[in-house]
Amino acid sequence: MTEQPKLSPTEWVREQTERILEQGTTDGVQVLDRPIVLFTTTGAKTGAKRYVPLMRVEEDGRYAMVASKGGAPEHPFWYYNVKANPEVTVQDGDKVATMTARELEGAEREHWWKLAVEAYPPYAEYQTKTSRQIPVFVVE
Question: 89 and 40 in contact (C-beta within 8 Å)?
Fold first, then answer.
């Protein structure tokens, strides 16, 4: 039997995820009136599956995972999980697919960063709050 993915310990993130699971779709679950996508990652140390709802940044069936953590000085925990285990599950609406994440650099990162800021303008502000470059993965 496959272990049930773990919910976030952060209350508002957990509530978002529970709403998606109850509805069976990400439709209607938003942050600042912007849609989200539900990713499932695998823990780098534990191997446990974890739900990660993130802003929906999509282009041609590919998605971005933006490791902003609201502009905090450190990466979110899920960043290390995806680096160690790049196979992720993506739920967009009621469609679910297994895909592979790859961290971006250079012009490709800049392209996806621009798409991310268009999809969720607060990302630009988050970058000004931290000295780290906010990582961006493409999931395809």
Answer: yes
Q: What are phi and psi of 97, to 5 degrees?
A: -145, 150
Residue 32 is predicted with a pLDDT of: 82
Nearest to 35 by CA among 47, 24, 27, 25: 27
Tens of pLDDT along 43-53?
Answer: 999 999 999 99
Indicate if the alpha-carbon torsion angle 33, 75, 98, 138 is positive or negative: positive
CA dihedral 93, 81, 102, 25 (to 10 degrees): 0
Cα dist from 132 to 68, 73, 102, whole Å: 10, 7, 18
Q: What angle (nearest 5°) sits at the alpha carbon of residue 14, between those of residues 9 and 17?
A: 145
DSSP string covering 72-131:
-SS--HHHHHHHH--EEEEEETTEEEEEEEEE--HHHHHHHHHHHHHH-THHHHHHHT-S
Count of C-beta atoms within a 10 Å radius of residue 118: 11
